[in-house]
Amino acid sequence: DARVTQTPRHKVTEMGQEVTMRCQPILGHNTVFWYRQTMMQGLELLAYFRNRAPLDDSGMPKDRFSAEMPDATLATLKIQPSEPRDSAVYFCASAPLSGGSGANVLTFGAGSRLTVL
Amino acid sequence: GDSVTQMEGPVTLSEEAFLTINCTYTATGYPSLFWYVQYPGEGLQLLLKATKADDKGSNKGFEATYRKETTSFHLEKGSVQVSDSAVYFCALKRLNTDKLIFGTGTRLQVFP
Predict the structure, then answer these.
(1) Could you count the other beta carbons within 10 Å of the beta carbon of residue B40?
(2) In the predicted model, what is the mean pLDDT of residues A85-95?
């Protein structure tokens, strides 16, 4: 089965350190999403890309978070500097181009669990 | 704005019991509706979907019917198993957008 691969699966770091999470979307999927999951807020959309171009990053704290797609096989989410409130599970998901239909489905990675001390 | 409301959990059931998890939505136009499931330590997986009114999505014994008149997409299963224990998320996506809007999730615990 094709899958979305995320690294690292777990990361523990100290406040103020830079954190980079990586995602390899499914080959041929041209829409990539970053979600954050916490107990308090549930699933929040941070940013998403279509054909490597950022379409919406309104859910992302701009001062410390950045998301990029250096190429079609890699998406990155960077936090600098990290804070304890950033502790969460970060999910990447990819989807094929919907072509205007409503039925395209997101495939999620297993997530990166971040703990900031 | 668009939103999805799910019943609070946890839902605790004995094996072979009937399951209903309620989901209602608010959206302009005619969204597609989804149920995703998250098993412990894993990402979300699509369980089923429906793209228009009166469509019924089904998979692995789970069913949900897109009810436009009540703006609902309730998840049901006739006989749950211990292996169904997970968190279930209802979600919507408007036509011509890429974003999925999720509910807060409902944890299901099934005991033998």
Answers:
(1) 7
(2) 95
